[in-house]
UniProtKB/TrEMBL annotation:
CDD domains: YcbL-like_MBL-fold
Taxonomy, superkingdom: Bacteria
Cited InterPro entries: MBL_Glyoxalase_II, Metallo-B-lactamas, RibonucZ/Hydroxyglut_hydro
Region (Disordered): 194-216
Gene3D superfamilies: Ribonuclease Z/Hydroxyacylglutathione hydrolase-like
Keywords attached to this entry: Hydrolase, Metal-binding, Zinc
Protein name per its UniProtKB record: MBL fold metallo-hydrolase
Domain Metallo-beta-lactamase residues, every copy: 14-194
UniProt cofactor(s): Zn(2+)
Coiled-coil features, chain-numbered ranges: none
């Protein structure tokens, strides 16, 4: 497997920031740099990697709180989310105050993402799927070669993302999972925004919110 990663829980919400890298080129990306930017940079340095970009699944504070500062200080492009999350980016300062986070710097994505886009990291390619429901602009990053998908807050082991925030939609979230995640294959390991990893097949069969009888 040429794509490697490690999971680094950050913020009081224990959000799973993922450090991804291409083994051949040692080029790296951070998925959902929600906070603790110095710790994240230390992990990059300790592994001898070159940080090339910041990937964002969605713009809730625990997933995007450190993105602006990292982008400014390190001169990094911000890739994602989908433009549907513009209002969440605009509200990052308010979010940080509401939840007691350090003040979040605003940022403008270098590249908004659409369903079907790809992101190149060294010699690795990540496929982008737009998965609205938790937020309107939520995206996930799928590595077919590594059989891994970084799903943010769309899906969890035994649960699914909340849909009671502004812009959330329960039925839309269920459709995103059914139409965007399940076709990736049962063997794909998903890395959620919180909690342990799981396989799509196990969740398709056992997740109480996504019962087999309901979806067929």
């Amino acid at each position: 497997m040429a794509l490697h990663y490690t999971t680094l829980p950050v913020t009081p919400f224990a959000q799973n920031c993922s450090l991804l890298w291409c083994e051949q080129t040692r080029e790296a990306a951070l998925v959902d740099a929600g906070g603790e930017h110095e710790r994240l940079l230390a992990e990059v340095a300790a592994r001898g990697l070159t940080l090339k970009m910041l990937l964002v699944t969605h713009a809730h504070i625990d997933h995007a709180g450190a993105v602006g500062q990292l982008a400014r200080e390190q001169g990094l492009p911000v890739v994602g989310p989908h433009v549907g999350d513009q209002f969440w980016i605009d509200g990052l300062a308010k979010q940080s105050a509401m939840f007691g986070f350090p003040p979040a710097e605003p940022f403008v994505p270098t590249r908004w993402l659409e369903d079907g886009d790809t992101v190149q990291l060294g010699q690795e390619v990540l496929a982008v799927r737009h998965c609205p429901g938790h937020t309107p602009g939520h995206v996930v990053f799928h590595s077919a070669s590594a059989q891994r998908c970084f799903v943010g807050d769309v899906l969890f082991v035994g649960s699914i993302g909340r849909t009671d925030f502004p812009g959330g939609n329960h039925e839309q979230l269920l459709s995103s999972i059914r139409e965007r995640l399940w076709p990736m294959g049962d063997e794909v390991v998903f890395i959620p925004g919180h909690g342990p990893e799981g396989t799509l097949g196990h969740e398709r069969r056992t997740n109480p919110f996504l019962s087999h009888s309901r979806w067929g």
